[in-house]
Write a structure and sequence with these properties.
Blueprint (H helix, E strand, L loop, with lengths): L1 H17 L32 H14 L2 H5 L2 E8 L6 E2 L1 H13 L2 E14 L2 E13 L5 E14 L5 E8 L1
Parallel strand pairs: 1-6
Antiparallel strand pairs: 1-2, 3-4, 4-5, 5-6
């Protein structure tokens, strides 16, 4: 009977590995059970941009005014729906928009994740954002709202923002 349980456990772990999403990792059994190390060949390359890093890189690049690094987070055909603005299509339009924000005094941002779900090569993230603008008189103006990103895994394993909307 004990061998049947172990065989069943190994089968479940193997199926978990075989049908895992590309970003998924098999769940290990409880600590007091024997562990079978399975090497799932679905892991993204170590150099890929993880979903957890995108917000941090987005904030650091926009605060530094480094639009080259910022645009590296967006897919070439990305679409952005900013508040009170026209729809931005492609990295050229998105880059110009963020340069204009920086020139208008927006220089401090924060993002707090609310939810993040990945399904195959698509991920959905919702968050709360806050931005601080310094006007010409030196006054701080705080703005905030919701942001939604739809990200797409690229052929090299990196995640890039495909659609972005905030209000």
């Amino acid at each position: 009977m004990k061998n049947i349980r172990y065989t069943f456990l190994i089968l479940i772990l193997a199926l978990n590995c075989a049908f895992a999403e590309p970003s998924g990792r098999p769940t290990l059994p409880a600590p007091n059970l024997p562990v079978l190390a399975l090497n799932c060949a679905f892991e993204a390359p170590a150099s890929s941009t993880s979903l957890d890093e995108i917000n941090a890189k987005w904030i650091s690049s926009i605060e530094a005014g480094d639009t080259n690094e910022l645009m590296a987070l967006y897919a070439e055909n990305a679409v952005v729906f900013p508040p009170s603005s026209e729809i931005l299509e492609g990295v050229t339009a998105i880059d110009a928009y963020f340069r204009d924000l920086k020139n208008a005094g927006f220089n401090k941002y924060s993002i707090a994740n609310v939810d993040l779900q990945a399904n195959g090569t698509t991920a959905y993230a919702t968050a709360l954002w806050e931005a601080v603008r310094i006007d010409v008189d030196g006054n701080k103006i705080k703005l905030g709202g919701n942001i939604t990103n739809v990200m797409e895994r690229q052929d090299d394993g990196n995640w890039k923002i495909k659609f972005q909307s905030w209000n």
